[in-house]
Amino acid sequence: MIGIFSCIFSLPVYILVNSSEETILPNDPFLNHTDIPWLNDFVIEDIFPVGEIHLIAGASGAGKTTWLIKLIESWMHGNSVFGHKSHSRPFVYISGDRSDAGIRRTFNRVGVDYKKIPIYSLKPADRTLSFVDVLKKLKAIQPDLEVFFVEGIAARVPNGKLNDYNIVSNFLLDLQDFCAQNGATVIGVIHTAKTKEGESYQDPRQKALGSVGWAGYSETIVLVETTEADRPDLQTRRITILPRNFKAEIFQLEFGAEGHLVEIKKPEAVSPGTWEKIKKQ
Question: Which of 68, 160, 254, 255 has its CA 20 to 30 A from that of 173?
Answer without folding.
Answer: 68
